[in-house]
Amino acid sequence: MKTILIKNAHIVNEGTILKGDILIEGDYIKEINDSISAKSANVIVFDAEGKYVLPGVIDDQVHFREPGLTNKATIETESKAAIAGGITSFIEMPNTNPQTTTIEELEKKFEIASKTSSANYSFMFGGTNDNLDEILKVDPKKVAALKLFLGSSTGNMLVDDPKVLETIFSKTNLLIAVHCEDEATIKANFEIYKEKFGDDIPIKYHPEIRSEEACYLSSSKAIALAKKTGARLHVFHLSTGKETDLFSNKIPLKEKKITAEVCIHHLWFTDKDYDTKGTLIKWNPAVKTKNDREQLWEALLDDRIDVIATDHAPHTIEEKKNVYTKAPSGGPLVQHALPAMLEMYHKEKISIEKVVEKMCHNPAILFQIEKRGFIKEGYFADLVVVDLNNPWTVKKENILYKCGWSPFEGTTFKSRITQTFINGSLVYNNSKFSDVKAAKRLTFNR
C-alpha cells in the first residue's frame, strides 16, 4: 500500500485554512494534523511549503463528446486536461452519438471511462419524450442524475411534451438536471434576425436571440413543476440576473429541493467580449450583460446559486469560426476553470474558501457523492496543490484540449495547479502526467 505524506500545506476545507500535514494511505486520507512524522522509510514525503491544498474539484457538467463526436474530444483527452486544471471528478452529459438514453448506451460509456479516464467519472442519463421506461430502470445509487433538455437540445432530446414532463418529474427518484431555454421564444427571435441578416447574423445579437425572457420563462416553469411534483431539481448554467430571484438561500444546501449552478464563462465574460472573441464565446445559454454577470456573482456569494461548473463543450476551431448560424455553441473550459476562479480570488471578488465550497464541497453534497469533495480523514485522497503566485499565460502550446483552442488564450493567470492527486495517486506533477490510472467510478450515498 502506497503511503504519501504532504507536509507544510495550507489546507483549505470547510471554510477554514489550516497549516498542517496530510497523510495518505492507499486511496484514502488517513490523518490530518498540525504535524505528522513519517514513521517509515517507505513513506513518500511531499513538501507543500508555501502552497495551498484544496479538495479535488468536482465538475457537474461536461461534454466529453464520446462516443460519436471524437473528432472534437474524447473521455481520455478531456479528462487529462481536467486533472491538469485540478478537476478530479466529472459528470458527463448524455447528448453524445448515440445518445445516452438507454441503459445499454449508458453502460457502454461507463466501460469506455473505466479504461481511459484520468479523472473520476459518472454520467447523466438522458430523458426524451418517449423513454420513461428506461428512465425508471436507472439505479440512483450508481448514476449521477437525469438530464432533461428543456431547450437547446441535439437529436431528439428536447423534452417539450408537458404531460411527459410532469410524468417524469412525478415518477423518477433521480435528481433532475435541466437546461432551461424556451424554444418557441428563441425561434421567434431567431426568425427576426435571420430575415434581417441571413446566415451571417452578428454575434452580438446572440443574447438577444437566446434572451433573458427565454431563460426565465423556461426556468420558472421547471421550478413550478418541481414544486408541484416534489421532484429534486437542479437548474444548470444560469445566465441572467432575473433568474437568480427564483432561488433561495434560506435553508442549507443538503435540505434544498431546488438548486442552481453558474458556469465559469457567465462569471467571466459579458456581451462586450463578443467584439474581440466572436463566436469563440458563443454558448447556450448566451453570455449576457455586465449587469447579469454582477447579479450572478451576487447570487453565488449569497448562496442562492450553489455550484460553479464549466459546461465544457469543445468544438473544432474550424466549426467555431463559421458564420453565426453554422457556428456551434460551446467551448472548452476544464483546464482553466479553477485558475480562472483563483484569478477572481486575487481580484478580491471571492475568497479561496468560497471557491472550494462552490467547486468542491457543494457538488459532493448536491449529488450525494460518497467520500469526495472534502479534505477529511476516511475520504478519498482527491487533492489539488496550488501555487497562488506562479503566473503563466494560456498559449496554444500549453492547451491540452483535443480541439486545441481556448477562450482564455492570451490570458495570464497568477495561480498554477502544480500537483493533482486522485485516489491517493499523484497523477499530475508540474505539467507532467503519470501513467497510473487511478480514476474510479463515482458512487452516490442515496
TrEMBL record:
Ranges of residues in domain Amidohydrolase-related: 52-427
Keywords: Hydrolase, Metal-binding
GO CC terms of this entry: cytoplasm
InterPro entries, sorted: Amidohydro-rel, DHOase/Allantoinase_Hydrolase, Dihydroorotase_CS, Metal-dep_hydrolase_composite, Metal_Hydrolase
Domain of life: Bacteria
One example of a Gene Ontology biological process annotation: purine nucleobase catabolic process
GO molecular function list: allantoinase activity; metal ion binding
Recorded coiled-coil stretches: none
Keyword Metal-binding (UniProt): yes
Name recorded for this polypeptide: Dihydroorotase
Organism: Confluentibacter flavum
